[in-house]
Design the sequence.
């Protein structure tokens, strides 16, 4: 059995190779170690198309990522510098090709997800992955020209679609359902969105273990 002293010696040997502060572009073995033994800090954006009726834009996860086959928002890990907004902007650009500005005023909530080992993943893992997400929502125009350019990448298949409230399904991850509904509520109002949601979806909403609603009112703007 590996002793604490052996683990300590190994980590001490790795530290000079990694550097004192470097976290951006973490090499795969260290990335795997980090997510095996602790939660990953992430940020997600729910895109709500500008329209007369509410909907959200989701992409399907591929087999190289956690939650393979699931419909999900766009986002990713926040590096050690913890610049949530810069991460959200960069992920929107790299994952779906949307160039959007985001600010603390776009925050809608804080979510947590835990992914058990999944045999559908290309690299099968024997540990859970836990993430904590700061979730934002942005309303965006989806013209035919813009839609033709949307090509999901970095964990997503080339499959994306919009979901109206009635199309949300109880099989979707609770974090995704909560984030999608709160995003549509922000732009279309809760009464309108609520009347279109299936009862089995409504019963999943509201658990703070999955999603804690948040908003930023600018009270510290000076």
Sequence:
């Amino acid at each position: 059995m590996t002793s604490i002293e052996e683990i300590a010696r190994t980590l001490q040997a790795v530290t000079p190779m990694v550097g004192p502060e470097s976290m951006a572009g973490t090499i795969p073995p260290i990335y795997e170690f980090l997510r095996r033994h602790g939660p990953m800090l992430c940020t997600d954006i729910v895109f709500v198309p500008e329209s007369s009726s509410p909907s959200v834009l989701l992409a399907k996860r591929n087999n190289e990522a956690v939650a393979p086959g699931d419909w999900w928002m766009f986002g990713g890990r926040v590096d050690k510098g913890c610049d949530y907004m810069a991460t959200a902007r960069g992920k929107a650009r790299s994952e779906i090709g949307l160039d959007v500005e985001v600010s603390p005023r776009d925050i809608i909530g804080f979510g947590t997800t835990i992914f058990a080992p999944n045999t559908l993943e290309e690299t099968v893992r024997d540990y859970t992955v836990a993430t904590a997400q700061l979730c934002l929502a942005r309303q965006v125009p989806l013209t035919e020209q813009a839609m033709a350019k949307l090509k999901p990448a970095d964990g997503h298949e080339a499959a994306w679609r919009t979901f109206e409230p009635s199309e949300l399904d109880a099989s979707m991850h609770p974090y995704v359902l909560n984030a999608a509904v709160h995003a549509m509520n922000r732009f279309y109002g809760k009464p309108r969105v609520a009347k279109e949601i299936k009862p089995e979806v409504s019963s999943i909403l509201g658990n703070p273990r999955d999603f804690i609603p948040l908003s930023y009112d600018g009270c510290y703007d000076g």
Q: What stands out?
A: The mean pLDDT is 87. The first helix runs from residue 4 to 18. The helical segments are 4-18, 28-37, 84-96, 144-149, 174-188, 190-194, 199-202. Residues 4 and 10 are 10 Å apart (CA to CA).
